[in-house]
Specification:
mainly alpha
Length: 306
């Protein structure tokens, strides 16, 4: 009985040996890729660039994906050398540059094929749709969400998380975007109209002759930027699912007339796994896996000799 157990354990070991280095490459490269994404968000926070920042947001996100992919590829290469027991070999500058370029191109391509958006690599602005925003509901004015809307927001919250930080636990809140105070608070609407008037190059006298409806669509664009979150029906404001922590932060910054950027680290998205595939490019059959070429008979012979 004991021999049978030991024989089965050896057979299982022989079968799993090729898979363990494969998983190791995937985990090491995914970890390095995640570190790169965190550094990208930190850079966005330091530079005050959010997912709502036009041009610079997607540009820095694209750079961050390329950088993270290079980290993933290099980590996987070093892991493979460690498994083979090889000393760190000197590579020419041309070889390093070629490997880095290939890793970056592969990571960026996979990221887009998996549905990723470069701007979503940036931290979320509390005054705009967040980096985790996927779907929203029409907000009929400054009132709180109805029971029916709360039920739908709760479903979106469990599926996609808080649109700012991605958290899926706790109480869900229907977040007005743009915030109520910017549109319905003291002088909020008038201030927004004045900003739009200036952006369109209209004088104060000519702006009075233009109907307010001409500006209704511009207010949200000016305050929110271009959002890729899916919307349903026309509305000046939208309900986005939000957690209590981000809601409290938002109330404070809106009250002070400022903005605040927050990180989003909750919940994995499909495109986060692009780094693992970049690292698997470096996978090669380890020397220990050659045991499988001898078949399982070697294990039986060892048992019989014992």
């Amino acid at each position: 009985m004991e021999k049978d157990v030991r024989r089965a354990a050896r057979q299982l070991t022989v079968l799993l040996e090729p898979a363990l280095p494969f998983l190791g490459h995937a985990l090491v490269s995914a970890g390095a890729f995640t570190v790169g994404l965190g550094m990208t968000q930190a850079a966005g926070l330091a530079l005050r660039i959010s997912c709502a920042t036009r041009i610079l947001g997607p540009a820095l996100g694209l750079t961050g994906i390329g950088f993270s992919s290079v980290l993933a590829g290099e980590a996987s290469r070093r892991f493979g050398s460690h498994l083979k027991g090889e000393a760190r070999r000197h590579r020419s500058a041309q070889a390093v540059a070629q490997d880095a370029a290939l890793d970056a191109i592969m990571g960026i391509t996979l990221f887009k094929l998996m549905g990723g958006r470069f701007r979503n690599l940036m931290p979320s602005s509390l005054l705009h749709p967040g980096a985790c925003a996927v779907e929203s509901l029409p907000a009929p004015g400054s009132e709180y969400a109805s029971q029916m809307a709360k039920g739908e927001l709760r479903r979106l919250f469990k599926r996609d998380g808080c649109h700012h930080c991605g958290r899926r636990k706790g109480k869900v809140i229907g977040d007005h975007i743009p915030p109520n105070k910017l549109l319905h608070g003291s002088g909020g609407t008038q201030k927004a109209i004045q900003q739009i008037t200036a952006s369109l190059g209209l004088t104060e006298s000519s702006a009075k002759k233009v109907p307010l409806s001409r500006f209704s669509g511009k207010i949200g664009q000016l305050l929110m930027g271009k959002s890729r979150a899916r919307v349903v029906g026309p509305a000046r404001q939208r309900y986005f699912p939000q957690c209590a922590l981000c809601s409290n932060k938002q109330s404070n910054v809106v009250r002070m007339g400022k903005d605040m950027l927050v990180f989003h680290f909750y919940g994995m998205r499909p495109w986060y796994y692009a780094g693992a595939f970049v690292g698997l490019r470096q996978y090669s059959k380890p020397p220990l896996a050659r045991m499988q070429q001898r078949g399982l008979r070697g294990g039986y012979l060892d048992d019989e000799q014992e």
